[in-house]
Design brief:
Layout lengths: L1 E6 L4 H4 L2 H10 L2 E6 L4 H13 L3 E5 L11 H4 L2 H7 L4 E10 L7 H18 L3 E6 L2 H11 L3 E3 L6 H9 L3 E4 L9 H9 L5 E3 L21 H12 L3 H16 L7 H7 L5
Parallel strand pairs: 1-2, 2-3, 3-4, 4-5, 5-6, 6-7, 7-8
Helix pairs in contact: 8-9, 10-11
This protein binds nickel (II) ion (NI).
The site of nickel (II) ion has 5 residues, from loops.
């Protein structure tokens, strides 16, 4: 099974044809999709969509670029705990730092990011991290708080990727890896062990070649997996299988429960 670990299905471009989007994803072997929340409203929407489709799970949170538009009450984040009790919610995202668009409130971005990381630890959830022009600050925060999660749509050097992996964080790889001139992310994929790579679209943005510049869809995940397999010189099936294992490892919800493993490792139930 292929998995899209990061998409924005609450975008209007998907909402108008959601049945078709999910159906086409499944026809192309993409049977699990994780949709993000970027503020309260889109998080509620993400949960609603996840409730409607077996294939879809939700992550909830406040995106760094949405912080300025949020009310004080929204920034208190009480709603995250409430929404998190829904069984379709499997993590906190999309959260992080973005110094590309607006550098005037970096401190507030850090404060809200850290608050959400602390919540994720309290809820035992992984996080999906947005880091744009902010990798060093993101890394410093990860070193202090040590959350589990993924640096989504990774844009940094292979050395930086290795630093995140050292902390047990996964590297999200999307359509950019298929672009001819994307030397840096290709090098990241080459150098990082497949055990730490997740596939994602970040749709509706960043469609892979040959669809670059058009709307992205979860059905394109096999194109990204194929590019990863070419760079690593392995079969695409290996990429498909390992990414599924990685997702199970991080989210711990789709792995098969083995009674003996449980018995061997803990005695709580007995
Ligand atoms: Ni995103």
């Amino acid at each position: 099974m292929f998995i899209d670990t990061h998409i924005h299905l609450d975008d209007n471009r998907y909402l108008v044809e959601l049945d078709k989007v999910i159906k086409e994803a499944k026809q192309n072997g993409v049977s699990k999709i994780i949709t993000m929340g970027c503020d309260y409203k889109s998080s509620v929407m993400a949960v609603e969509i996840a409730n409607r489709y077996d294939e879809v799970y939700a992550m909830i949170g406040i995106h760094p670029s949405e912080i300025k538009k949020c009310s004080e009450e929204e920034l208190r984040l009480d709603w995250i705990k409430e929404l998190a009790s829904n069984p379709r919610v499997i993590g906190i995202g999309e959260i992080g730092l973005d110094y590309y668009w607006d550098k005037t409130y970096n401190d507030l971005q850090k404060e809200i990011f850290i608050k959400q990381i602390e919540l994720s630890k309290e809820l035992n959830f992984p996080i999906s991290v947005h880091s744009r022009d902010a990798n060093q600050d993101t890394l410093d925060i990860m070193k202090v708080y040590k959350p589990k999660g993924v640096i989504h749509c990774f844009s940094g050097s292979s050395q930086m990727a290795a630093e995140f992996v050292k902390l047990g964080l996964f590297i999200g790889v999307g359509g950019v890896v298929t672009f001819k001139n994307s030397r840096v992310i290709k090098e990241v994929v080459e150098k990082i062990d497949l055990k730490w790579i997740l596939t994602e679209t970040d749709g509706p943005y960043l469609a892979p070649s040959p669809y670059r510049g058009t709307q992205n869809f979860p059905k394109y995940i096999p194109i990204i997996a194929e590019e990863i397999s070419k760079i690593k010189e392995i079969d695409i099936k290996e990429v498909e299988k390992q990414v599924e294992e990685n997702v199970n490892r991080l989210f711990n919800i789709w792995g098969e429960f083995v009674w003996e493993d449980c018995y061997a490792s803990c005695f709580v139930c007995f």
